[in-house]
């Protein structure tokens, strides 16, 4: 049984993790930025060294393709993830999956293995969605879920335009998104949660992925003096917003379901210590692996907002930012992950992914699944993100075994 080159894989993860550090030492590779270009250049260099055919599409998705004259006409197996990061990121999120995919291909090439179909690795653009929205953008375009021109016209948080930025950094490719139609898609990722570590298991076989509902809520009241306005005469947007937070938290906590609710951002106007807020703007993130439950939570929130407007003498408006249905991954690939773990003497657990990943988009067009490895303390999107070297290598070996089976 062959295994990945641990030294090469771990060395690349660490080397890529040095690219994009700011003056404070924070890792920041936002999509289509100068530091993203540096990371892309490093990755493309490794793809070339491996002898892979390199293709870049119009939205900057990067593909390294291993094919031969014997299998060039077949739909490829695709391994993918991303190398863009959040602000002050860890070194594993996304990058591990891309670099492990490259490592798997290199080991299969070196072993003399002859796959019946091409094998490719992809680094998708703007998975994190920090600079441009929506997140998982590159894979969504590839799967046909959003138009190319819409994405290229996306305006970033810094007022940049994605298409212009991709051209500026040299990654506005000539391939049409979706040009590569995969036979199957597999993504290896750190869990970004505490389950595997808590249960002492090295491998997660991800069988489904939560649906996500993002909304921006604006509550308008009346600004007034904080000292002279009686409580009974207030139209307080801040208090109304607080009631929404409490409603969502209490409802999710009291349920016996996996539903989670988060208020991640909030802004008050005029944002003064001695003025009653005239406006509160905040975001709501609802997630559940069951579509009917997710819809029920959306309905419950809408009904509560209607009641709140009357009770608090405020007006409420809602903007939908993103909506993705839950995803069921391919059971055959999930079973292959479990079998691969068993053959290497590793415990595995079927899991739900609480975070969004490129795999949920690719599942629209091909059988797909994910492999998880533990995250220390369940921490991710943080410089404290950590997975033990042995766990990273174990996950890459499972990826190698599953791809080998799919390629036979």
Automatic annotation (TrEMBL):
Record keywords, A-Z: Hydrolase
Record organism: Mesorhizobium calcicola
Domain Peptidase M20 dimerisation: 210-310
Annotated family: Belongs to the peptidase M20 family.
PANTHER family the UniProt entry points to: ALLANTOATE AMIDOHYDROLASE, ALLANTOATE DEIMINASE-RELATED
Protein name as annotated: Zn-dependent hydrolase
Molecular function terms from GO: hydrolase activity
InterPro entries linked: Amidase_Cbmase, Bact_exopeptidase_dim_dom, Peptidase_M20, Peptidase_M20_dimer
Keyword Magnesium included in the entry's annotation: no
NCBIfam families linked: hydantase (TIGR01879), PRK09290.1-5 (NF006771)
Keyword Protein biosynthesis: no
Gene3D superfamilies the UniProt entry points to: 3.30.70.360, Zn peptidases
CDD domains linked: M20_bAS
